[in-house]
DNA sequence: ACCCAGGGTCATA
DNA sequence: TATGACCATGGG
């Protein structure tokens, strides 16, 4: 498992918060602004005012809420006994619980940080995942986050690298499932999922 | 001029 | 437990 440098860790973690209910595309400009100002680090984000931060991340929408969420995350990091490079030594279950205790970090954001920033082998469930798995008949009704995650993790025995790749595939093809009739994205995922699920 | 995008929190019943 | 209101900009 590969610990990342602090710069990468914060870019991924802050990006995970900024992308909540928003396409990645909209996040890049905000992350670039933070980087070009040299404030994508825990000290700068601790010192900047919430309103200043909100103005910078404006293009991502929900900017007032997200500014608070980012500062809540930074405050947690300040309280945490581990530095970013050592977080991977924490028990992943305990770390997940700690992330979830931060106001503004829910299951998907916590799991995104674990998988993408810390290479913890945990599957990130998003709206697309739920829609696709339900549409494919793998799940029925209105499954909860944990059920969907368990379904994938029970059947897919792959590396964290592959967890990462599969979630990316779902995001890429997920929009095809907005339409009623099967499209190429569905065919792709049928063969994809059929191999493992 | 709509419609939606890789969520999460809070209030209410 | 579960359902709904709310947050808000940018691209199609």
Describe this structure in words.
With 197 residues, this protein is an all-alpha fold. It is built from eleven helices and no strands. The protein has helices at 6-18, 24-36, 42-47, 50-56, 63-79, 92-100, 107-118, 127-135, 145-155, 160-174, 184-194. The mean pLDDT is 91. It binds a DNA duplex (13 and 12 nucleotides) through α2, α5, α7, α8 and α10.
Task: Give short descriptive properties of this protein.
DNA-binding, 62% helix, 197 residues, 11 helices, mainly alpha
Q: What is the number of strand segments?
A: 0
Low-pLDDT stretches: none
Q: Report the principal-axis shape.
A: globular
Give the oligomeric state of the chains in this entry, treating copies of one chain as homo and distinct chains as hetero.
single chain
Counting H and I runs of at least 4 residues, what is the number of helices? 11
How would you classify the helix and strand content by structural class?
mainly alpha
Largest sheet: none
Which sequence of SSEs, written as H and E, runs from N to C? HHHHHHHHHHH
User: How would you state the average pLDDT, rounded?
Assistant: 91
- Into which percentage range does the β-strand content fall? under 5%
Query: In percent, how helical is the residue content?
Result: 55-70%
> How much is the radius of gyration in Å?
17 Å
Q: How many angstroms does the end-to-end distance come to?
A: 26 Å
């Amino acid at each position: 498992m590969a610990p990342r440098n602090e710069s990468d860790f914060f870019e991924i973690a802050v990006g995970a918060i900024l992308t909540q209910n928003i396409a990645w595309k909209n996040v890049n400009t905000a992350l670039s602004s933070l980087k070009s100002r040299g404030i994508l680090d825990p000290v700068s984000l601790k010192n900047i005012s919430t309103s200043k931060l909100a103005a910078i991340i404006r293009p991502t929408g929900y900017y007032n809420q997200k500014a608070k969420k980012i500062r809540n995350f930074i405050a947690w990091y300040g309280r945490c006994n581990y530095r970013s490079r050592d977080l991977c030594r924490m028990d992943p279950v305990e770390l997940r619980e700690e992330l979830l205790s931060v106001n503004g970090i829910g299951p998907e954001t916590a799991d995104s940080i674990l998988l993408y920033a810390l290479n913890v082998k945990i599957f990130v469930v998003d709206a697309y995942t739920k829609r696709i798995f339900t549409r494919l008949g793998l799940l029925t009704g209105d499954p909860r986050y944990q059920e969907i995650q368990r379904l994938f993790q029970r059947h897919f025995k792959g590396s964290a690298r592959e967890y990462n790749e599969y979630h990316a595939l779902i995001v890429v093809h997920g929009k095809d499932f907005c339409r009623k009739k099967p499209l190429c994205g569905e065919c792709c995922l049928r063969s994809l999922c059929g191999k493992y699920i």
